[in-house]
Structure formats: structure tokens, C-alpha cells
From TrEMBL:
Organism name: Vulcanisaeta distributa (strain DSM 14429 / JCM 11212 / NBRC 100878 / IC-017)
Pfam families: TatD_DNase
Keyword Hydrolase: yes
The name this protein goes by in its record: Hydrolase, TatD family
Superkingdom of source: Archaea
Length: 240
């Protein structure tokens, strides 16, 4: 039996077209963007290949490199997008631009509400800041990507109907194993964040298979049952 796999967060625009064609044969991918040019490429890829959910946005690491005019360019792509991302706040890696990150993220949160699109969010050491901003704006569909935040925040995220994604790095990252154990199945998605390099591993979409095996074992269910749940979570989040 052929099982469709799901990757809720990958920078597909960074891969060669030949690799993308290979990935999307068996994986439904939420493709995130980092700025206007990558957002444009992500939209183009989604027009060329099935199984791509295009997300447009400006990564918090880039907010000091772009002007507000780039926000207006990204907004013009929203009619073709299925999601806003990768957007968010980051106190861990770029704390020096935090105020500007908030300014940009506030715009993305407003768009999510106004255009009824989900948010694919980056939030290292800013999990609660992000939660408070999306709650205040009444945004319904939110994914906290590569969740490594406080375990005691997970139930609160679930109470709001939000999702977390567990990265394929779970095979070497103990915090991700703890998150997988704590998080209820109905809020879990899997991701690669490819082609990000983590502790010597270049992450790629097919690695969600290994992540699924590990999480299924932690949860005491079959891999097939795990993919069933992930499939329905993915469909609800992205309104497929």
C-alpha cells in the first residue's frame, strides 16, 4: 500500500528542480519562503508541481535586510498562496532585531486573519510572545515549526487548536523526543526544514519517514496510523 507522506515545513526554493520533482512524487510539502524572491519562486513551483502547499513570507532573520516595500510585494502574492511563512519571532539567534521582527510579524498576523490563511511560524525562545500575538489577533490556524519550546506550553497550544511540527532531527535531538512524547497526536505534524544543516546532517523531505518511525514507536502506534493522523492534521491546518 502506498502511503502519502507529509512535510509541513521545507525551503523547497533552495533545492534543484530535479530534486523537487523527486520529493513531490511521494511527499506533500508545505514550502516556506524567506523573502520576496523566494516567495515568488515558491508560488511558481506550486504552479509547476502538484503536492506543494505554497507559503510566502519574510523570515525573521531577514527583517533587517529588507524594506517595508518588500512586505507590499509579498502581500500581492497572497491570492496565490495557501499559507504565510516562514514568519515569526526569534530571541535566540537574532535578538538584536527583535523590535523590527515584531513590526513585521504584526503585519503577517493581520494578513493571516484578513486573508484567512494559516501561519507557518519560527519562534526560538519566543514561543509565548508568538502565542500571545496570534491569540490577540484571533488567528485560527497556526503551526509552530520545529517545536522545541517549553513542554508545559504544549497543552495550551493544543487548547487553541494550534499545531506543532517535529523535525526529522528527532533521531539525534533529545528535546524533540520529549516533545513527541508530550504532544497529543491530534496536533502533531512532521517536517524536515530542508536543506537546513543540523549537527552535520543536511535535512531533506524524505527524512520525515525516519521521524515517523521514531514518533510512532514513542506513541506506541503503527507508522501507518501515525501517517493517517498526520494527514488529517495537515489537511485541517492548510484547508486542503
Amino acid at each position: 500500500m502506498h502511503i502519502m507522506l507529509y512535510d509541513a515545513h521545507t525551503h523547497l526554493h533552495e533545492f534543484l528542480d530535479s530534486r523537487i520533482a523527486e520529493f513531490v512524487r511521494e511527499i506533500m510539502i508545505a514550502a516556506v519562503s524567506d523573502d520576496y524572491p523566494s516567495s515568488r519562486r515558491t508560488i511558481d513551483l506550486s504552479n509547476n508541481y502538484e503536492n506543494i502547499v505554497p507559503c510566502v513570507g519574510i523570515h525573521p532573520w531577514n527583517v533587517d535586510k529588507v524594506g517595508l516595500d518588500e512586505l507590499r510585494q509579498v502581500e500581492k502574492l497572497l491570492s496565490e498562496a495557501k499559507c504565510i511563512g516562514e514568519v515569526g519571532l526569534d530571541r535566540r539567534f537574532v535578538p538584536q532585531t527583535f523590535n523590527r521582527q515584531v513590526e513585521f510579524f504584526q503585519t503577517f498576523v493581520s494578513w493571516a486573519r484578513d486573508y484567512d490563511l494559516p501561519l507557518n511560524i519560527h519562534a526560538p525562545d519566543a514561543w509565548r510572545d508568538v502565542l500571545e500575538m496570534v491569540r490577540r489577533a484571533d488567528v485560527d490556524r497556526v503551526l509552530f515549526h520545529w517545536y522545541t519550546g517549553p513542554l508545559n506550553l504544549i497543552q495550551e497550544l493544543r487548547d487553541y487548536g494550534y499545531y506543532i511540527s517535529i523535525n526529522a532531527a528527532i533521531k539525534i535531538q533529545e528535546k524533540s523526543k520529549a516533545v513527541a512524547k508530550e504532544a497529543p497526536l491530534d496536533m502533531i505534524l512532521l517536517e524536515s526544514d530542508g536543506p537546513y544543516e543540523y549537527r552535520g546532517i543536511t535535512l531533506e523531505p524524505p527524512m520525515v519517514k525516519d521521524a515517523a518511525r521514531i514518533i510512532a514507536e514513542i506513541k506506541g502506534i503503527s507508522v501507518e496510523d501515525l501517517w493517517d493522523v498526520v494527514s488529517s492534521n495537515f489537511s485541517r491546518l492548510f484547508n486542503l
